[in-house]
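Quick question, first post here. What does this chain look like in 3D?
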Amino acid sequence: MYQYFLKRIFFLLAPEKAHSFTLKLFRLTLGIPLINSLFKQRYSFEHPALKRELFGLEFPNPVGLAAGFDKDGKYMDLMGSLGFGFLEIGTITPKAQIGNPQPRLFRLPSDNALINRMGFNNEGVETMVARLKKYNRKTQIIIGGNIGKNKNTPNQEAVNDYALCFEALYPYVDYFVVNVSSPNTPGLRDLQEKEPLTALLSHLQDLNAQKKHRKPILLKIAPDLTDSQLDDILEIAQQTSLAGIIATNTTIDRSMLSTDDSKVEAIGAGGLSGQPLKERATEVIRYLSEKTKGELPIIGVGGIASAEDALEKLEAGASLVQIYTGLIYSGPLLIKKINKAILSLKN
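> Answer (accepted):
Ran it through. Tokens below.
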């Protein structure tokens, strides 16, 4: 139904409008108890063998929703109905910001890809906290908080933005992701350099140590890092006792696209996600896993559009996987297909 009917309708709309319309439509539809029950029967897939224990948390299954899809945590109930084992909300910044001018989200259908330059558009951490206070977790789904800095905050003061988000969200999320790898906030990726990143993560871990129960802190990295830079990331991860790495964010590389160059140039700057990112994301996962002998947990994300793609990430060394663009192109049954494929490996 999604591939042959709904997707065609949604793709008639501008991407950002389609995203908002789709989520609102599903929320309205799933508000009807009978439809909600039928929907869960169709899309949810549970089995004890799918559970994963990682950095002190028990995940109902290893398939998660990547950050950026539900920036403000408005659709956590809906996303939970799709059968995800964990949801990552955000990226969240201290102050609300509108992000970059529209249009800022573009489809590349021939590549099963998206280009976005959203720019951390979100309603701010206080609004998110208010929403999380009201959120009633009906399942054991895990919630992660992806945090960033405001566009107008200079890099030398960025640590304050991350700390503010950490403190505000601490009581309400199960783990944190430090996002310094989005290409859509000017200068943000400079924070991936060794000195500023070490200082930032060390400060957050100092705050974490003051709590009664430490929360896992993960780092989301860009796929465009060199092996030398990845080695630095691993050194920092060890020094700052990171719980894990999320590999990877979107890429600024366009070399793997089949879409006409003139169309790509007309779109302009932004992070590329989807199928073209698959190979590089897997390479990064494998490199990190081999370097750490599998001892540092990795969440694999980038180009997962099928069960086979997810299994490839797991084989490369990921412990969990996340999807975003694949959900748009392949539809919500993708989650169930991945979980069934993972289970079949155990049987």
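The longest strand covers residues 86-92.
The chain has one domain: 47-346.
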